[in-house]
Fold these 3 entries.
Entry 1:
Amino acid sequence: MTDPDGLPPLRQVVERFDLAPKKKLGQNFLFDLNLTAKIARAAGDLSDCDVLEVGPGPGGLTRALLSAGARRVVAVERDSRCIAALEQISAHYPGRLKVIDGDALSINLPALFDTPPKIIANLPYNVGTELLLGWLTTADWPPWWQSLTLMFQREVAERITATPGSKAYGRLSVLAGWRCQTRIQFDVPPEAFTPPPKVTSSVISLIPRAEPLDAPLKTLEQVTAAAFGQRRKMLRRSLAGLGGEDLLTRVGIEPTKRAEELDVSAFCTLARALSKE
């Protein structure tokens, strides 16, 4: 028995290669090919694109990306048990799938591509935020990637896309909103996964802004870390080590405001002022 793409059903693949998900690797597999196809569609037209996928597992999303017409998919998987299953997909799509056995956190990912890829992934929960921060804080901008279509726990997705004044708004919101247009595309219920996580997940998209507001990256990271590290305090207290009330007054921001009240533009203004000291 095969699925519409001519490959065995994913549950059979998992049984054949003994791929029980490992909690320590943050693995939750998606077997529903209709759902993986929906994720692929959320990234837009793939017909003339290279795609980077991190944490493909047994290859459910990988198959959807190739079926959707991706020119080439580079799949990075640190769980060596999954490599044989992914190589089976590679044989079914000759020349279009490159499988890399390794840790995405330690691989020079930009060097794998001649043109900016779309990054599309059901990221492992335990490293998803770390990977995203690395992609958002790359030194060069526009970045080496074309767009991000990623799945996170709903709580993390809300933090990435949050706006000023909301409880979810924080350092990650500022960095993401500064450099990208962000949007939650749709939710994925726990029962869609094997094993089911305890929380709902969300697929989000991040499209890089061609010209983000002027701000030095390192200083912006410093300001947001200090401000949201003590988010319940007024900025004159949380930013005391960076100039506090003097810095805030100089740029026209009320010292009694709290971090969640400042928009991305205000944080950029603070970063520029601090970098000139």
Note: The chain has eleven helices and nine strands.
Entry 2:
Amino acid sequence: MSLETLPPLREVIATHGLAARKSLGQNFLLDLNLTGKIARQAGDLSGHDVLEIGPGPGGLTRALLAEGARKVVAIEADPRCLPALAEIGEAAPERLTVLSGDALKLDPLAHLQSPIKVVANLPYNVGTELLVRWLTPSTWPPFWDSLTLMFQKEVAERIVAQPGSKAYGRLAVLSQFRSDPHICFELSPQAFSPPPKVTSAVVHIKALSAPRFNAEPKLLSEVVARAFNQRRKMLRASLKGIVPEVQPVLESVGIDPQRRAETVSLEEFCRLSEAIREARA
């Protein structure tokens, strides 16, 4: 058996009884032309290991292997999918490792060799949490060169949002601080089985070698979280208590204390974070 002779995904789903489960955030993408398009957004996969989360019946897994990934490590929480994935492994000997379990609890790095790309149709219920973890590691550069991920369109727009827009928030700041994100394309609900209630979008995020602006990452994350947790409040109120007197700190970096978080640029948040670090010291 080869990748080209594997049965259609609808047949695989029927054979293995893989009705999508809402509790696992499953919406299967069955069009192999679309899974191939997603894999190609990650760029040249030859010479790269690829981490995939939530492969399900393996449509994207097949595409990643067909596009030349050196190895795919797939984490799957649904044991019903393992026999279908095993068939793909037989068609691509020694190039697929499947880890059974929760992607939030498993560490796949022992099974991966650099350079590494992450490509996944993320389950809706864990997508944002995984992204934040990948964007906020303890050291930088991270283990990954790039992330090519499918999200609900609303989440994708939050990742690339600019100041002044309703979508702009903590996710935009964290994404753009040390990486370069852009939306590749959208997918209609009808592309999935079962169709979700929302449009989806594929986002490509390339890691930068260093942050765009100088800031201590953990403190920046704290400042941004506080500012956006009460986004309708003025900064002097939402950041109250982060230092004994926050208003003079804001003024020292040229930020009007009456502004709201959604108007503050990434560069300004970084300057503010550094001023807060100095005030605490």
Note: The domain at 3-207 is CATH 3.40.50.150 (Rossmann fold).
Entry 3:
Amino acid sequence: MATKTNDYKSESIFQRRVRNFKKIKRAYYSLIIIVSLYLLSFLAPLLVNNKALAVHYNGSTYFPAIGDLFWESIPVQYHDASFFGQTAQGEANYRELKKQYAQENKGNWVVMPFYPYSPNEVLLGEVSQPPTKPDNKHWFGTDNRGRDVLARVVYGFQISITFALLLTFFSYLLGTIIGACLGYFGGKLDIFGMRFIEVFAFVPVMFLIMILSSFMKPSIIKLVALLTIFGGWISITYFIRGEYLREKSKEYTAAAIAMGASDFSIMFKHILPNALTPIITFAPFSIISNITALLSLDFLGFGLRPPTPSWGELINQGMGEDISFWWLIVTPLVMMFFTLLTITFIGEGVRQAFDPREYARLQ
């Protein structure tokens, strides 16, 4: 009689932790929401933009939001700045073009994005005495330069998350390498390395960044590089060093050494996979800290250079103007609160799923 084969496959500790994380619904759904919104933000030019998705003119169709073929192909008479109210940079006003085509009724048409305003478009020709209150056209109003607040908040979300992810990645990469070397090799390297880190940790990072920003034009890459070099790596270095000090005394490390594995192989192929808990656990909270750092720098005027959409810059406008311009403060603060809240839920879920006490129960 044939016996049934046992198809049961043992579950690793990491797989069990992922399964435990999915059981924490608040954290799991928060992860889905924030990842979905971040991926959706890359489609912002097709959803929130002052460029048309499609323009049909005299039997031909153009796609300005995807490419700039419209300017190269449309006849000269449609480049009249006074008629279209186009900007100083020579960008056509597709909203007015849509109205004109509808009035002419000659078979030409324009399809605009869902929200037909861009973050850097100055709407002085459409709004009077900015900033203006929220209305049916500008749902969250305009700022003191006549730019749509909702558009700036949407694009600011993508910039904030991208900045935080880049800073977290490079800080953790550098901190992991330094912490691994200190913990694995130990000895004088560890002693002098820790003394250097302790001294370096007292450097006032934000104050230093403000000084450097005063005579340079910071971009996302420059800010990420500065914050990574001047302290972003320190906190994770402590945790990784501790993990390597603990893991290098384990039997699997001694077995790898006995088999003649190189130091690089032992550090990053054997020990590192078992030392990822602090990296995974603290990454969401690091992202929160990095978003707050960017917002603080932008609020103080030492962050990303204008006209980059920024939550901090909008809050600065609201704080600097009359308090009646409440939408300049409330809109970015609500968006920031929602973002930080969802990431906090994710961080709490990850910490609970990767709890060492849970690991001990699984032995």
Note: Confidence is low (pLDDT under 50) at residues 1-5, 68-89, 359-363.
